[in-house]
């Protein structure tokens, strides 16, 4: 009798334990938990959209386009003024008529328009976008150097014209020191009057100095914008033995 009582009473805890455990096919669906997960997903999507909008507003606000437009306008102006100077006298050297600087920067501005029209992809996922950015940065740096050289050449000739003493013979002959018989003389072919050299050409040299200085500044700003857009946030180093969250970041 005692054994029968124990055998009858023993299945009760097992049945209670089995009843307390949920079945494997059923999932614990909590509506509050589902709402919080949906809200977090929506916040994450909104954050990505806002980040994309911020980046698009940064790249499409008109400032990179303004740089390309200024480069094109200044490059065309420098080229036109240089050919006008060549029309005054054919004796001017190529370094004194910096049409080469204007043409180079015009090509740079066209590449800037292509870069502005290129669809942005984060982290530079395409090689074409990276190549265009790198080429535009390098050509802007080249344009900066070329414009500085043009300013140096034109400044040198502008200072010489201020000390000229010109006489009209068959052509216009100018000397730096008329009292010195062995002083260096400059002959300008195809000039009707020496005033074209001492007034008109002098004014064009001054205009070239101003335009090339402005263009050099624009190229410098474009290099800074490209550098900031690529390296605005970068890692300065890693500390060994520390987790990823403690890496130094600027």
UniProtKB/TrEMBL annotation:
Q: How does it sit in the membrane?
A: Multi-pass membrane protein
InterPro entries the UniProt entry points to: CD20-like (IPR007237), Sarcospan (IPR030429)
Q: Which residue ranges does the record annotate as region Disordered?
A: 1-53
Q: Which stretches are transmembrane?
A: 63-88, 100-122, 134-159, 205-227
**Major location (coarse):** membrane
Keywords of the record, alphabetical order, are: Membrane, Transmembrane, Transmembrane helix
A single GO cellular-component term on record: dystrophin-associated glycoprotein complex
* Residue stretches of biased makeup (Basic and acidic residues): 31-41
The annotated regions of Polar residues compositional bias extend over 8-30
Q: Where in the cell is it found?
A: Membrane
Q: Does the keyword Transmembrane helix apply?
A: yes
Recorded protein name is SSPN protein
Organism, scientific name: Polypterus senegalus (Senegal bichir)
């Amino acid at each position: 009798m005692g054994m029968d009582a124990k055998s009858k009473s023993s299945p009760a805890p097992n049945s209670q334990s089995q009843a307390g455990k949920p079945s494997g096919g059923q999932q614990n669906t909590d509506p509050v938990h589902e709402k919080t997960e949906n809200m977090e997903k929506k916040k994450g999507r909104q954050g990505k959209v806002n980040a994309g909008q911020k980046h698009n507003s940064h790249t499409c606000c008109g400032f990179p386009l303004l740089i390309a437009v200024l480069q094109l306008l200044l490059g065309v102006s420098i080229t036109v003024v240089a050919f006008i100077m060549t029309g005054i006298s054919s004796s001017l050297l190529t370094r004194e008529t910096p049409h080469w600087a204007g043409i180079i920067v015009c090509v740079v501005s066209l590449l800037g328009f292509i870069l502005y029209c290129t669809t942005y992809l984060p982290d530079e996922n395409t090689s074409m976008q990276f190549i265009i950015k790198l080429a535009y940065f390098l050509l802007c740096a080249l344009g900066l150097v070329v414009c500085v050289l043009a300013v140096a050449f034109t400044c040198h000739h502008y200072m010489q014209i201020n000390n000229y003493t010109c006489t009209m013979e068959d052509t216009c002959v100018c000397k730096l020191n008329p009292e010195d018989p062995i002083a260096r003389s400059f002959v300008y072919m195809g000039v009707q009057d020496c005033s074209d050299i001492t007034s008109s050409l002098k004014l064009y040299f001054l205009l070239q100095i101003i335009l090339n200085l402005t263009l050099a500044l624009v190229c410098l700003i474009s290099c800074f914008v490209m550098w900031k857009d690529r390296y605005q946030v970068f890692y300065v180093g890693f500390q060994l033995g520390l987790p990823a969250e403690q890496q130094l970041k600027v």
